[in-house]
Amino acid sequence: xxxxxxxxxxxxxxxxxxxxxxxxxxxxxxxxxxxxxxxxxxxxxxxxxxxxxxxxxxxxxxxxxxxxxxxxxxxxxxxxxxxxxxxxxxxxxxxxxxxxxxxxxxxxxxxxxxxxxxxxxxxxxxxxxxxxxxxxxxxxxxxxxxxxxxxxxxxxxxxxxxxxxxxxxxxxxxxxxxxxxxxxxxxxxxxxxxxxxxxxxxxxxxxxxxxxxxxxxxxxxxxxxxxxxxxxxxxxxxxxxxxxxxxxxxxxxxxxxxxxxxxxxxxxxxxxxxxxxxxxxxxxxxxxxxxxxxxxxxxxxxxxxxxxxxxxxxxxxxxxxxxxxxxxxxxxxxxxxxxxxxxxxxxxxxxxxxxxxxxxxxxxxxxxxxxxxxxxxxxxxxxxxxxxxxxxxxxxxxxxxxxxxxxxxxxxxxxxxxxxxxxxxxxxxxxxxxxxxxxxxxxxxxxxxxxxxxxxxxxxxxxxxxxxxxxxxxxxxxxxx
Length: 481
What we know:
This protein is an alpha+beta fold. It has three domains: 5-171, no CATH class; 218-308, Helix Hairpins; 310-343 and 361-479, Histidine kinase-like ATPase, C-terminal domain (Heat Shock Protein 90). 48% of the residues lie in helices and 17% in strands. It has ten helices and 14 strands. The protein has a five-stranded antiparallel β-sheet with strand order 1-5-4-3-2, with helices on one face. A hairpin with a 5-residue loop joins strand 4 and strand 5. The longest helix has 50 residues, at 5-54. The two termini are 39 Å apart.
């Protein structure tokens, strides 16, 4: 059984070439067979006219039966057909000795009797002479399947009944041209279908890698497809497993360091309390606080990368309101606007006559979302803290539709250049506005937005920034699918 992509490619190349050669051979052989058949019929018609007009030898595959010198042309009775049969009558004039042919300017009368077909002879009138006209007529008789009976005579001579196997339906060669087209079409569809199936495996791999950043996607990718794709999936699964183990080890090391630093930090605090110089003692305590806060920030960033919290469904509007209420209870300038729609657009369907419909929702303030609530609470808190520290206030706006949720935090801070905005999501990177209006440095380590960007990426979303006239807007965009 073929398992590799190379094997399938080789097989389909051979099969495609074979099908193409066979289809071309069927087409060309059928075309040549019909060309030879019609050429024989045309020559037979030419020789028949020469026999009637000049008494030349009769072709081998043709027979003439004399019907006497009847003034009236024969009809369906002489042809042995029903009165409803179709009769096609025509005449050819062969030029005299001074023209381009022989026959002394004789007129050749022809009558074709068919059980079901009236022959298209309008084009035959343009043929020069009886020989060419009979050749064209015989070619049409051989081309159209009707088993006709042919009567002809020269001027006022006797009527002759001509019989030939070339004009019968059984004499027509088999036409494989439609079969050749069907064979080529089937081969092409099979090749395209299998190629699409192969491509679907790689597309599923890319989709699986993309969805792994969404909540709940932690299992290994399924092994499917050809050997090359399975080897790629195996390598990717191994790489992801190593990354998870590496992050887990880093978190364990940082947790151990944080725990081990607790004891000496406590001793340092006790010893700092014995310092009589109040200013020096305050500086010692401030440095210890910054050290502890920095370790905690790094631990939080590592936990966000690991995403150990399980995903579940919760109300994002309620979570946002709870965070905002906690800040309001302490008198912080934090406001909120909930723009969750009371109705939601649906996809178009044939029953909607091409127009999207809107469906009313039972509760406009209930916004269900599947994700990690503790991580999103930390992300929202970091955005609010940044807005309060650098922009004096935070105005939260939450809106959603069927595809995504957009959480905006607008501050009233100073303008930042685009380069600073792009650097804000890197660890330990801070903007240029790190001092307040009085020039006092604002505390921070540059990890808050890095944590927010990591949490957004784990939910399949992104963190965006927009400089507005009244301050900076941080936008957290999360997909709902």
